[in-house]
Structures are given as structure tokens and as C-alpha cells.
Amino acid sequence: MLVEGIKSRPIYHPLEPKPGSRHILVADAEGAEAILELATKTPDGFWDKARILYIPRSAVGKGYEERLQALTPFPLYVGPTIAAAIPRLTKELSDAQMGTQIYLAGTEGLVGQAMIVALEAGVDQGSIQRDHRGSEARRVQCVHCKGITEEVTTQPVKCTHCGLMLLVRDHYSRRIGAFQGVCIDAEQPGTAPEPEEAFL
Amino acid sequence: MTTLDFFHDETFRDDFTYWNSPEAIRRFPFPFNEDKYMYSVNLEPHVAFKPGSVFEKSFDVDEHYVSEMRDRALVLQEDPLRCQSLPHMNMAGWDLLELIMTKKAAEYPQWFELHQDGDRWRWVNRPLDIDHTFTFLDNTTLPYGPMEYIMRQTQGDYAILDQRDNNLWMDAGMITTQADWSLDFDLGMNFMEWHGPVPLAHEMGIFDRALKFLLNVRQGQPARRLNWTMTVNPRLDTSPERYAKWGTDRMDVNADNVGQLMHLRVELQSFWRLPRSNALVFPIRCYLISLQDLATIPKWGRRFHRVIRDLPDELADYKGLTITRPYVIEYMSQFDDGAPTSPGIFADDE
Ligand code: HEM
Predict the structure, then answer these.
(1) In this structure, which topology does domain A22-132 adopt according to CATH?
(2) What ipTM describes this predicted complex?
């Protein structure tokens, strides 16, 4: 079974300003850096059409909120967790018209979940950019019980829902916003290796 | 054969009473046309070929039909996520229902009938004891969505691919007999993404060429290919969802039972353009044969020994054969006298 190097894994690029009627920027933690770098490349008037949603998470206290707020005249949205920010993001995206550009930056968990909301709101994939910054922690879906384990840093990992020891594969579903986890000792139960840090 | 006695009463789980008649063994789609195997773009027109073979009819119906449909119903009862269709795929479901009903009624009139009176259609499926009148394109007149309705009466898994942006998107499917991949996980992926886990073939350019071919498949000109793997026991439902339940089967194989337990699993895959939705439908029809039955055809016994012995390790690992392959090679070696084999997949006396 292939574990690494699977082509369904998303490819990330630095954010680039694109012409648009509106710009929605969503970031968590170190993803703020990606937005600040984007700001060095944006044309005049870009930020007058921009809304920024930010979830500080592990970068709380690093002062990113102030620097992001300085970019745009609209009030910065600051959310405590990704889950708490989803309703706000859903609203922003369902209000978005054709020509809206979406910029996602930060952990793969944030990027993946924001991507689901955008696709469900009918945003064309071509108007979504993704940049991965900060922690390599993964969202993993257990292929057996379908439960999602957040913030996975080890290989293998115990499913927080059904308790099976899962091998984390590079196979990635955009629709679910998660990597695939498959029982690692199904052939010989009880032989799972000890989890080791793999995604930091 | 016209009578309903043709269909076996057998199981693909628990006590595994599945068996192949001598006729089923002879018509088994042996997938190797030479003594070695590597991935290739093995696509050909799906045209009627060789009476009695699995390549004769558009959608082959064999002695396992009735029991296979019973097994599918059990899988769906436990896990309805094996059948999913994104909202924009409803028309493709009707296209598929029409394709299968018209082909089966024309090619197996002893078992299936379709009477069309405008939008009022009457469908008779004798093996499954169904006689149902419904309105074409009206979902409320069927007990399930159109895809699920016809798939509960059709052997094999089916994926329906939406075609857009020069790619194919797996946006619907009925997948209960899969070789270890998850529809629920792959739903919404494109051709390159769902093939992500396959080793070597991307680098060989196989998927680029295959996708180009599929994007150009036209209505009325279906194509086909064979794919294969191996399964312990005649188990249809080797899904990743239930892997923790069947994975241990691999430890049951030993030198004494390998001929009965290990099965060659061959997929007859075909590709059809649908008329209204322009979707592509991909039937994956699974055939299972135990090694001891396979070896009753001398050419197949010789050739399969050579194929499995020389199979590249990457392919063996991907197919889940790491534990069982040594037993298979040892067992098959008794059927290989070193004699040359003839070209092509069919037994020598045909
Ligand atoms: C559009 C129709 C097709 C669909 C829906 C489809 C689907 C799949 C899926 C789901 C897998 C399993 C991947 C995994 O391990 O998760 C697979 C494997 C594979 N597919 Fe396809 N496929 C299609 C067409 C083709 C074509 C035309 C080729 C031509 C060369 C091809 C070649 C392969 C190969 C070589 C494998 C690995 C099989 C093995 O070693 O057992 N596929 N396919």
C-alpha cells in the first residue's frame, strides 16, 4: 500500500494577487505571514475590497492581529477556533458574487476545511489559492468509522472515535478535507508499532 | 440456459459457499496474454466477441447473479455510504438505468423485459422476481434513486464520472465489491487524484494516455480492459471500510489450503458514454476463481505461476500479496512443467 507520494495530496503555492471584485482571505496561526507577504505584492485598491478572517491558534500573542488589521479598512474577524469561524466564513462566501477571489493560508486543517466551505458555496476551484504555513499536523479520517481525528502529529495514530491504530496515508480528499487513515495492524491485530512524531 | 435453476444459491462471506461450475471456469476472464505482467494502457473496443465468453454481452449476467445481489443488499444495509451520488448526477443515473435495461432486455430476453409506452416503463426482472411499472425521469416512482435502483439489479460495481475541465470526476457510484478502495473517500476526486495510490503507473505515463482516451469515448462505442488482484476466500466485499474484519484472512493461508483459499480476482472494466448527461460510466465486473479451479486449465496454471513469481514487488505490495505470495508461488509451481505457452488469454482447445 502506498503511504507517501500519493498524487491526491494538495499542492500549495505562495499567494498571488488576482484581479477580483472582492477578496476573502482566511488564515490561521503562521498563515498570517502568507497574507503579509501577499501585501507586499498587491496593487492599489486591493485591500479596499478585502475581508480578512484570522484564527490565531498557536500564534496567539505574536501580534499578527494588529498587522493584519492595518492592511484593510474593514474590521478584522478574529476567531477562537476553526470550528467557531466556520459559520462566519460560510456567510461571507454565500454573499460572495462571481469574481470573488479566495486566499487560504495556514495549517492543512484550516486550508482543507475552508476549502470545503468554499466548494459547497459553489466557488470555482480556479478562484481559490492555498498556501500551507506552520504546523504539519494533519486532519485524518478513519476509513473504518469515518470519524475525523484533528491535529495528528504521529505515525501511526489512534483514532479518537473507534480506537483503531491508523496508518496515515498521503491520500487526501478535498471533499472531506482530510487524509486517509487505515488500520495498521488489520492483518495481525496487536502488532501496531508505537506512534512516533511524524508531522510537526 | 433459460431456467432460473441456472443461478446458484451461495454466499460470499461467513461460510463462503461460492463455487464455479465447469462452464464458469472455462469462461473465466484469465487476464494474462503472456507469461509476465506489467501495467499498460490495455484498452480495446468493447464489442461482442466469442459466444459464451464474458466478452459476448454488454453487461454479462452469470450463475452468481442472484446471490451477488443478495450480498450487495447486505453490504448496503450495514453501510449505505457504499452508494453515493452528488446532486448533479441524477440525470446520469437515469441514463445508466436506460442503458442497462435496454441492453439486458435485448440480450437476455429469457430473463429481462422492458416495455416502453412513452414515459411509462414496465421492467420485468425474472431472476430477482421484479415486475415494476414506473415513469422514466420521475424519481418519485422508484423505491430508490435511479442509479441505486438499477445497481441493486446489476452485477459489478459502477462509478459514474462527470466530465468537465478536461478531466473525469468521480461524482457517483455503487461500490460494494471493490478491491480495497473507498468510494466515500474518493467521491468528488478527479482521474489523477483517485489513481493517486497506484505505484509506477503515473511515472510510466499510463494515466495521462488513459485519461486522454477516456475523454474521447463516444456514445455507442464502449471500450474495455481487464485488471486483476487476489483475494483470500471468495469475498466480494474487500472494502477498506471493513479491512479490520477481513485483513486477518491473510494469516489463514498456508501450504495445505492455498489452492482452495486464494482466489484470482479479475475485473472486467468497461467504459460507456451516457447520452443526456454526457457522463462516462465505468462498470467494474468482478470474477473470482480459486487457484485449484484455475489450474484445471493447463495453460493458465503454467502461465499464472510465471506471472506471480516474476511480478514486480511494488505491484505485489500494492495488491496486498506480501504475506500470501510465497505460498501461491510454491503451490502454482506444481502446474508449471516449463513448456511454452501459446499467445492470448484463452485455453488452448478453444
Ligand atoms: C474512469 C474510469 C476509471 C475509474 C473510476 C478507475 C478507478 C480506479 C480506482 C478507484 C483504483 C484504486 C486506487 C486505490 O488504490 O485507491 C484504480 C486502480 C488502477 N487503475 Fe483505474 N480507474 C479507471 C480507469 C482506468 C484506466 C482507463 C486505466 C488504464 C490503464 C486504469 C488503470 C488502473 C491501474 C493500473 C490501477 C492499479 C490496479 C492494480 O494494480 O490492482 N484505470 N482505478
Answers:
(1) Rossmann fold (3.40.50)
(2) 0.91
